[in-house]
Amino acid sequence: MKDWQLWAENQQILNPEELPPLHFTPKDQKNKSAFKLFKLDHIVEVKKQHPEYGFKERLETLKHMWRNLTKDEKFIYVQKSKQLKF
Q: Does residue 9 sit within a domain?
């Protein structure tokens, strides 16, 4: 038996209910760029429209959507990003 097989046999499987809940901390919020905020707002829409897409295809779609935004539409996300950084 290989080392990794022995290691795998000895690992305990965690129950998801026993894990602590994940929360965004203020530090996490400070790292959100304008594009990340846009992505959070539109990822569900892209998943509904293209359920067959993987992560890479969804990200490419979001990048394309971001590039096609007007300056006024981008300005909203830039301002939100600046507010979170303070």
A: no
Reported as half-sphere exposure (CB side, CA atoms, 13 A), residue 25 has a value of 2
Give the residue among 74, 86, 85, 83 at the shortest CA–CA distance from 41: 74
Asked if residue 43 lies in contact with residue 61, where contact means CB atoms within 8 angstroms, the answer is no
pLDDT tens-digit map of 63-75: 999 999 999 999 9
Q: Output phi, psi for 77, to 5 deg.
A: -70, -35
pTM: 0.63
81 in a structural domain: yes
Cβ within 8 Å of residue 40, ≥6 positions away? 32
pLDDT in tens, 31-80: 788 899 999 999 999 999 999 999 999 999 999 999 999 999 999 888 88
Note whether residue 50 is domain-resident.
yes
Q: Range of 58's domain? A: 44-85
